[in-house]
Amino acid sequence: MSSGRDDQAAMPVTWDDEIDDILDGDLTAALCYRTRLGGAVDQALAPIGLRDRAAGMVGFTTSLGFSKKLVRIAHDPRVALAFHAREHGSARSQRYVLVQGRAAVVEQPTAAERARLAVLATARLGPPRRGPFWDRWLREYYQVRVPVYVTVDRIVSWPDLRCAGSPRVEGAPLPDVVAPAQRPPTRGTAPRVDVPRAAGRVRGTAHVLLGFAGADGSPLIVPVDLEGSGSTGLSLASAGPLPPGGRRAGLLGHSYRPQLIGLEARQYTGWLEVGEDGRAVYAPHTETGYRAPPNKTLLLLLNGALAKRGVRQARRRGLLPPALVAPTAAVYAPPTAAR
Q1: Whole-prediction pTM value?
Q2: What's the longest Cα–Cα distance across the chain?
Q3: Structural domain contains residue 329
């Protein structure tokens, strides 16, 4: 696996067979990356088992047509990947696995890298749709999909998918201090989107995760339960670590079906306030989301349209290398609306 990095002087972080089986078998994972103001954004994605245990790397794929997160990762490569759900995959362990590291986007993958992505994706998500119409309609979606490789700094895992119990750490030790509180936004911390509507949408998803910056700046992702809502925001509870005080945070609620055909994702950025008693209130400030149809044909039509629009926007902003969109650059993309 080529990482796109040449600064790996330290020994790579490795992991045991149980964790490797999870990294190989989970159909979905959650990505958390930093924002310029110290916050976090959570997104669901398809990791397709992309990893290299000997090199200490874990990966995922994304489209350069959806370039917003790639710009942020380029500014701050610290990311986290949470392997938190076992439905429709092959892993059987109930361990929650959090991978923290530094991401590098390979903007022009080699033919061998593209071939490997095609094999991994087909094995987990089914064969690609081919033919004169689909080759044209999905051209941008297939051709600008690239790998992102995460050089692992630390793997934190809990024996339970709710993050109950004592964590096990591989790699860099966890900080021995809690993350300090952040300065409130200049526009205030109160909710800026409809809280009852957000509560209803999040409650309708199978998995809810909260992301924020840890004490060392690396993102953390923990599963949370929605216990209620009020004028100040969403009431959350978690068995995982929630540092006291206020901070910017991202919230993700998502559900998925076999081969990721049929998805729902609700993403928020906002302000998290955790009291000394551990009670947490999340005030959502921004909201995005989608519900993808549980039909592969409709989903691919949607993906093709979104990728075409994203590529046009990326070109206008100068974010898309011209060499990527070429007739020989095809690569199989997962049939999912995840970015």
Answers
A1: 0.89
A2: 60
A3: no
